[in-house]
Every structure is written in C-alpha cells, then in structure tokens.
Amino acid sequence: MSVTVFIQGRNGATRWQPGKRWLLLPVLLIAAGTGLYQHNAKQIQQQQASVDNERVAREEQKNELIELKGATESQLAILVTHVAKMQAKLARLEALGQQVAKDYKLEDQFDFSSEVGVGGLSELGSNIELDQLIQDMDRLVSRIDNNNVQLSLLETVTSNLHIDEERYISGRPIQKGWLSSPYGLRNDPFNGRRTMHKGIDFAGKEGADVVATAGGVVTWAGNMFGYGELVEIDHGNGLRTRYGHNKSLSVAVGDVVAKGESIAKMGSTGRSTGPHVHYEVLRGGQQIDPKKYVYRKAG
Q: What is the CATH code of the structural domain delimited by 178-294?
C-alpha cells in the first residue's frame, strides 16, 4: 500500500508520495501521547498519595494532642489530690501548734492562724513541668510528715510533763478533817509505851473521802495487819504512799489513779481508836516523815 499527497501551490498541484518511514509518524505520535498521559497520571497518583499521607499524619497529630490533653488532665487531677492532702496535713499541724502554744502560753510568739511570711528567689524557674512539680510536692509532703512526727513527739513530752505533775506528791489525803497525830515518837494509844509512829494521822468524819496525794498505780488494796483496810500507791521513782484504817475501798490492785481521786472511805478498821486515815510516805521501801510532802506546794 502507498500514500500519495497532492500539495497545491502557485504553479499548480504537486504530487508527493511519502516513504514508509513517514507512515510511522502517527504511530509515534500516538505512543508519545500515551506515554505523556501515563506520566501525568502517575504524577497525579503520587500527589494524591502525598495528600492522603498528609491527612493521615494530621489525624495522628490530632490523636496525639487528644492523648496529651488527657494525660495533662490526669496529672492535674493528681496535683489537686496532692494539694488536698497537704492542706489536710497542714490543718492538723496548725491545730497541734495552736494547742501546744496555748498549753505553754506562747500565743504571742506563735500564731498558726495567719500566713507565714516568705520571700526570695524560686529555684523552680518560670517553666514548671508537672512531673517536677509533683516531685517537689512529694518532698513537701515528706517534710510535713516529718514535722508531724516531731509535733507528736512534742505532744508526748508535754503529756509526760503532765504525768510528772500528777506523780508529784503534795497535800493531805483528806478533803475535810484535822491532823490528830504527827510522825515520830509517841505514847502508844493501846499500851501507853513509847513507840515510833511511822506516819501521820488525819481524823475526820467516818465515810469521808480519802484521796490520793499523787497519781500512780495501786499496788495494794485490801486488809493488812495493823493497818486494817489499806490502799498503797506506787508513784514511781521509788516513792509510795499508804492510806490505812479505811472503812471501804474504791480501787483495786492495778488501777491507775489520778491526783485528788477518791480511793477509799474513812473508817476505823485495824489497830485504830476512831475514824481517821493513817498516811505514810515510803522512799525505797522505808517510811519517812510525810510532813514535807503534806505542806509543800503542788507541782
């Protein structure tokens, strides 16, 4: 097959018959067009893939922001809990401090109801991370706990001081009555012989209260030869007191009694001529003159 091309010019029509190579031109044009289309299609696909990847990346960033927000809110909740705990502990410390200050009459030197003056540069800086802040607050809680322990110890010490005051022997073993026989040599009321009286007798109305002259632990509550119904109290430091000739007893062995507490009723049991209390003070197991304890000021 052959192709003839007529070209119209000024001098008439000219006939031109192309060779076989010219017949390949349309094929080449079609092939070039197809290649260009495929290239453009590939670029469009790549651009679309890039857009899709960008969309996915933004979605991931959005999810990360949501997770970060949730974590921050959780840390803030923990922070609020820490603050609440510290406030509760500080409230207790303030209450203890106020009580101690009141007990020792130091209200003019210690005021736990007002804010404490503070100042100086902060070591935290302007940018505070929650983790670091929580760690600092944990250390603060630890310091508060330590101060709490110290205040508890101080409270125990003051309680011990009160116990020492309770154990301080002073005053008479009766509320109403009179001294009927002092400590020392006297004529025995039963045989008239000169004998040693190892206590002080306080006479009064039968059934009147007999009271402890100091706090301590009851080591004897019952009948003892010569004493009748007897109460003995150990006050520590080697000191004990005895209360004899009672009508009835109000305590038992092992009881802890306070200073001024009623321990018996006045009577005349044992070797006695009438209602009275035979009162003794023993140091290291030996009777001593109770006079200085009876008339000294309360501790």
A: 2.70.70.10
